[in-house]
Write a structure and sequence with these properties.
- The chain has 137 residues and is α+β, with helices and mostly antiparallel strands.
- It is 44% helix and 23% strand.
- It is built from 3 helices and 4 strands; from the N terminus they run E-H-E-E-H-H-E.
- The protein has a 4-stranded antiparallel sheet with strand order 2-3-1-4, with helices on one face.
- Helix 1 packs antiparallel against helix 3 and helix 2 crosses helix 3.
């Protein structure tokens, strides 16, 4: 299942413990955003690609996530999907936090973005970073 060559690494740097509901809500919001991204960018993959958490590390919460995308696309295309989604999600979160207008966002999207930032919003010194990584073979 973990044969992907592109990953998203999400780092929460929090001083306070994160409430489990906020932590779970982040991943639920991220999953919904990923599905919307597929519907928009690759409709033939909608409903068939899944995002998985591969690892959560001790200390600051660092979650490594990969997408399981059917063999309908090549490895390079799969990496472009994951990295493209990571860049879009990072930009949307940054704009949402800054109070910028999110072009074309609807209520469910805004709800998912709210879920995604709840874990860091509860910690006055909390930060989150999203990085797209591609492994070399």
């Amino acid at each position: 299942m973990n044969n992907a060559d592109a990953f998203l690494e999400i780092t929460f740097d929090l001083k306070d413990p994160v409430e489990i509901n906020d932590f779970a809500a982040f991943f639920a919001g991220l999953g919904s955003e990923f599905e919307r991204y597929l519907i928009s960018e690759r409709p033939e993959l909608a409903g068939s690609a899944r995002m998985f958490v591969n690892e959560v590390r001790k200390g600051s919460i660092v979650a490594t996530m990969f997408a399981s995308i059917p063999d309908l696309v090549g490895i390079a295309d799969s990496a472009l999907i994951v990295l493209g989604f990571g860049a879009l999600f990072n930009r949307r979160i940054r704009d949402f936090i800054r109070g910028k207008h999110l072009e074309g966002a609807n209520k469910p999207q805004l709800s998912d973005l709210t879920k995604a930032v709840q874990a860091i919003a509860s910690d006055k010194d909390g930060t989150m970073a999203v990085k797209g990584l591609r492994l070399k073979n």
